[in-house]
Amino acid sequence: MTHSRVRALLVVLIAVLSLAATPSHADSVRQLRVATYNIHHGVGNDGKLDLERIAQVIQDSGAQVIGLQEVDRHHSVRSDFVDQAKWLGTRLGMHAVFGANIDRDPPEPGAERQQYGTAILSTYKIREWRNTLLPRPQGGEQRGLLEARIKVRGVDVRVLTTHLQHNSQVERIAQVAAIRDLLAESPDPIILTGDTNALPDSAEMVTLKESLADAWDTAGQGDGLTYSTDNPRTRIDYVMSSPDVRATSATVVDTDASDHFPVVVDVELPSPA
């Protein structure tokens, strides 16, 4: 074999080895499907409590991480005193955490506390979590910010969900300010889900959009109305993320299992450092 042919073969071999050592785009991109869903404690437009119906909507969405609002935990007869986050996690084979924003004494000694708040479900192990109560300067309903930390193929991600005050912009603005403080200068990618009870061009959402991207603005089509399911007229349910997370699709799911439509978003996470 001539020297020129040997050199040519070496060049080809080096090129092949280089391609094998370089991760493809599909290998390097961390994809995640996220959803937000106000489940109205499992009661649909027909007035019937049906948590299985909620579970089926989540399952059909293919979401790997879901922020839930209006979740009951041993709350009252309206939800049969069920721990809804635990029930949904077990039914769907997902990890679940619950943040109690309303926490009342049990109706009788020895019974479970009556709680109401938010939850996060995840196919990825929840490494740690916390629930932070948000300000209510006018004495409105107690609201919170629930956070779960997960790892997606080597990438640490902060997933959060919230449900802001429904009848006071003053309180929502104070709650948004507290959320921004809690998320400030985070080294990890952030995904915030929730029912903010605020329109996309409101002062509250404009403030959030100073540091977080609205997935619907990036990847949705149309108005993206989420409330109410019997008369869709507003967009108040959001999936938002830090600039290093890119939304590639956003969809509102048509279902009457609750009084809100869920929003399902596909995102690409940054590669690990």
Characterise this structure.
This protein is of the alpha+beta class and 273 residues long. The chain contains seven helices and twelve strands. It has helices at 3-21, 25-28, 51-61, 84-92, 169-183, 203-208, 215-219, and strands at 30-38, 65-73, 95-104, 114-122, 128-133, 144-152, 155-163, 190-195, 213-214, 237-241, 246-252, 263-269. The strands form two sheets. A six-stranded mixed beta sheet has the order 3-4-2-1-12-11. Helix 3 packs across helix 4 (84-92). Mean pLDDT is 92; it is low at 8-23.
The order of strands across the largest sheet is: 3-4-2-1-12-11
> What do the pLDDT scores average to?
92
The shape, in one word, is globular
Based on CA atoms alone, the radius of gyration comes out at 22 Å
Beta-strand residue percentage: 25-35%
Number of strands: 12
Multimeric organization: single chain
* Helical percentage: 25-40%
Backbone structural class: alpha+beta
Distance between the termini: 45 Å
Largest sheet: 6 strands, mixed
User: Element order, helices and strands?
Assistant: HHEHEHEEEEEHEHEHEEE
Unreliable stretches covering 5 or more consecutive residues: 8-23
Note the total helix count. Answer: 7
